[in-house]
Design goal:
The chain has 798 residues and is of the alpha+beta class. It has 21 helices and 24 strands. The strands form four sheets. The protein has a 15-stranded mixed β-sheet that branches. Strands 15-16-21-18-19 form a five-stranded antiparallel β-sheet, with no helix packed on it. Helix 11 runs antiparallel to helix 15 and helix 18 packs antiparallel against helix 19.
Length: 798
């Protein structure tokens, strides 16, 4: 009973500490000291910038630009507008994707004492996605940049210039940053850059990306950060993901720096609900104060951080960060191993460490990973929400109860594995739990070989591990052995990530050494294990919460459950005749699935979290056809009413340019809508010139090009294109704000043809169409909704 109470108190303390650590600071008032950051002073800028959606090239974006010019002028920055065209290319296996457009970056300079010294830059983007006011992404970053300039000026003249870069077109493919670093002369002066972003509407700001060779950069960050959230693990993972921000461009240009963002309240990401009223002001405070601290240090320093070997680092507690060279990770592992060895030696001297028990403990740890992963997978599939950005919104609208469901499943899984190791004779029961859960995955969303595979693996591990009772010391030693092996593998293969296993292992080793591998059960020793467990698990929960927010892959949380087991195992381990823990564990799992059922069966939509809908009028001028379409994955009642307003049945189709994949469609009455025009002419040097003129009012032009012969020496609006797709493959071009049209020049290997699929988007419902039905308060238009799309195909020959 004492052990169970200690475990409960430990978990309560761990969750309380983790919750406290994840809260952003309170916003500083408008009368805060002049040299400090104040969210209250910055927030009025957010309100003006985020009055309405303002995508690149829109009249609303022009209004935001003009306002920012006024604000920067008042700050003495003498702002200038960089008008330029930029393109950003991605290459697949055969296909090519090109994003481009005309941008208007806003650049200002806070002069330093030495105008020739390398400069510091503070960067954010002022455009939003269509349909979203962008209060978080990135009105917050822009407002914070202005407040940072004001605070730096209040401190005095910096040692070097501070360049403010407010980019345009980030949401359309990092266009503004590309234009700045490729074309603007000030870009060559920047030797340190701070970027601010957001992927949600709240939470603490994370410093999630650095430039290459970040040793001195992290030294500056550690020295100045007030309440940091950062780790080399996050940087390592982000580099493996397909995500990009403007910092991608500065990093590719070789500029050192720091990239900040907050990712809480993800329902508001790129959503009409990303309004100033819904922005968590503490997030504005946190990202502003952290960026200001680094900007101040760099701006007033005698020298900027140089490129030096990267460090392993992570925040610990109370604003402290621990950082060291990767080679020091071996010393951390050695310390952890020494502490575990001391605990094992003390337990073995008492005859409490049979080697068979150690092997069983290793199997139990692996069983825990399989069980928690399959429970998380089953829960995710059982929610009924499909996978994808739009599909996940059903969970984001009720994110708290979804996270609570996973927490209950995690605690239940840990209790089952640890109690089964202690009781023994539970092969059948534990095997059936994991196998049944794995098989049940196929009941939701179709055949699931991964879930079944996890269930079968867990069944085998249960058979091997839970046939006989194991001592607490022996099974805990086995669990710690798995931690040691994984920490060693990470230290060899991915040193920036090894701390995630090594630090909890060292903390668990300390507990093992003090309590003779958990064999001492007095209140004092239970208290030691509970305190160490609360410290370590609360730290791990921060990473778990980040995985939960950042990735829709709950199975990965099994790693956090297993790492927590390194610390909690001796408290969760039961004696041979104790039955209550297993009953409690099963009850927790059942309660977790009750919560999952609530998530599935209780629709979350309300005025604060409206259901996303999309509507567009798709016109094919050459075919005299029209359709009402929706690009959301589901068909709520409002969408059904919209699609069938002209009497058509709902089908699925693909737009001619392959834009956004499959869409829902219903027949519509044809209306007059201007189409893009195409002109292909042969030039004197033998090259071909394709001029595409968008219809009046169209802000987005999408093209899919497929040639019958190789094309080379291509330029797009005068800018060189690395390459076009080979014959039969597709080159996709998404161009934003091209009032003068799009000019593609290329040389063909011989006579041939070019098939062009096209769409042109005008963000207004056609005047001649039946009006849209009114939306209820719990329904909202999403993305470029309520728009007119003109599309079709052209075949051009030469």
């Amino acid at each position: 009973m004492g052990r169970s109470i200690a475990l409960a108190l430990c978990l309560i303390a761990a969750f309380a500490l983790a919750w406290s650590a994840e809260r952003p600071p309170s916003p500083a008032p408008a009368n805060a000291p002049a040299t400090s950051f104040s969210a209250a002073r910055a927030f009025p800028d957010v309100e003006i910038i985020a009055k309405a959606p303002h995508p690149i090239g829109s009249p609303q974006n022009v209004a935001v630009r003009d306002y920012l010019i006024q604000r920067m002028t008042a700050l003495g920055l003498e702002p200038q507008i960089q008008r330029a065209e930029a393109l950003f290319e991605r290459k697949g296996r055969r296909d090519i994707a090109i994003a481009g457009g005309q941008v208007e970056n806003i650049i200002g300079v806070l002069p330093g004492r030495d105008r020739t010294a390398p400069a510091v830059a503070v960067m954010a983007h002022y455009d939003s996605v269509p349909g979203s006011p962008g209060a978080a992404d990135d009105a917050t970053g822009v407002a914070a940049a202005l407040e940072i300039v004001r605070a730096l000026k209040a401190q005095g003249q910096p040692a070097r210039d501070v360049i403010i870069v407010l980019t345009d077109g980030e949401e359309s493919g990092l266009l503004g940053a590309t234009a700045f670093f490729e074309q603007h002369p000030l870009a060559q002066r920047i030797d340190f850059l701070l970027n601010m972003e957001a992927r949600g509407g709240g939470g603490r700001a994370q410093m999630f990306q650095t430039g290459a060779e970040n040793g001195e950069t992290i030294d500056l960050f550690r020295k100045t950060a007030i309440s940091p959230t950062a780790s080399s693990l996050t940087v390592f993972m982000y580099e493996k993901m397909p995500n990009d921000t403007d910092f991608t461009i500065s990093k590719a240009a070789g500029v050192p720096g720091l990239n900040y963002a907050f990712i809480g309240r993800q329902f508001d990401y790129h959503s009409p609900t990303s309004t100033p009223a819904n922005l968590e002001k503490g997030s504005l405070q946190h990202i502003g104060q952290e960026t200001l601290a680094a900007a101040r240090e760099a701006a007033f320093a005698s020298a900027l951080p140089a490129k030096t070997p990267s460090l392993v680092y992570a925040n610990t507690f109370a604003g402290h960060m621990l950082a060291y060279p990767p080679v020091v990770g071996w010393a951390v592992l050695a310390l952890a191993g020494l502490l575990v060895a001391i605990g094992a030696w003390r337990a073995r001297s008492k005859g409490l460490l049979p080697w068979l028990d150690v092997i069983q403990g290793m199997g139990a740890a692996l069983y825990l990973i399989a069980l928690s992963a399959v429970l998380f997978r089953l829960a995710r599939r059982a929610t009924g929400a499909d996978f994808g950005f739009m599909e996940q919104r059903y969970l984001l609208a009720q994110v708290t109860r979804w996270e609570i469901a996973l927490i209950l499943l995690a605690i239940g899984a840990l209790a089952i594995a640890a109690s089964a190791a202690g009781r023994g004779r539970t092969r059948l029961a534990t095997g059936m739990i994991v196998l049944g859960s794995g098989a049940a995955c196929s009941a939701f969303g179709g055949w699931d070989p991964i879930g079944l595979g996890l269930g079968l693996a867990g069944t085998i591990l249960a058979t091997v591990s839970f046939g006989r009772p194991a001592t607490a010391a022996g099974s805990w030693a086995g669990v710690l052995a798995t931690g040691s092996l994984v920490a060693l593998a990470l230290q060899i293969l991915a040193p920036p990530t090894a701390f995630l296993a090594a630090w909890p292992l060292a903390l668990a080793g300390l507990g093992a050494a003090i309590t003779a591998m958990g064999s001492k059960r007095s209140l004092a020793f239970l208290g030691v294990l509970a305190v160490l467990g609360a410290i370590g698990v609360s730290w791990l929960l921060g990473f778990g919460h980040g995985v939960f927010l950042g990735l829709d892959l709950p199975e990965l949380l099994a790693v956090i459950v297993w790492l927590s087991a390194l610390l909690l195992w001796p408290l969760a381990h039961t004696g041979e005749n104790e039955k209550g823990v297993r009953v409690t564990a099963v009850a927790l799992i059942m309660l977790g699935f009750v919560m999952v059922a609530v998530v599935r069966l209780d629709p979350p939509w309300n005025e604060r979290y409206p259901q996303a809908t999309h509507a567009a009028y798709f016109v094919e001028p050459g075919e005299n056809r029209a359709s009402r379409i929706s690009m959301t994955p589901d068909i709520p009642d409002w969408t059904r009413q919209m699609l069938t307003a002209d009497g058509g049945e709902i089908t699925q189709t693909t737009l001619p340019a392959g834009w956004r994949g499959q869409v829902w469609a219903g027949r519509a009455t044809p209306v007059q809508a201007a189409s893009p025009t195409f002109a292909l002419t042969r030039q004197p040097d033998g090259s071909q010139r394709l001029l595409v003129s968008p219809p009046p009012g169209a802000r987005t032009l999408g093209l899919v090009l497929k040639s019958t012969v190789p094309l080379g020496d291509a330029t797009l609006n005068g800018r060189p294109v690395q390459e076009l797709a080979p014959p039969g493959a597709e080159t996709r071009i998404n161009w934003q704000f091209a009032p003068q049209g799009l000019e593609l020049n290329f040389k063909a290997a011989g006579p041939g043809a070019l098939e062009v699929g096209f769409i042109a988007v005008t963000e207004a419902w056609p005047a001649g169409a039946k009006p849209l039905p009114p939306r209820p308060a719990d329904v909202m238009g999403f993305d470029a909704s309520d728009a007119t799309i003109v599309g079709g195909t052209q075949r051009l020959t030469w």
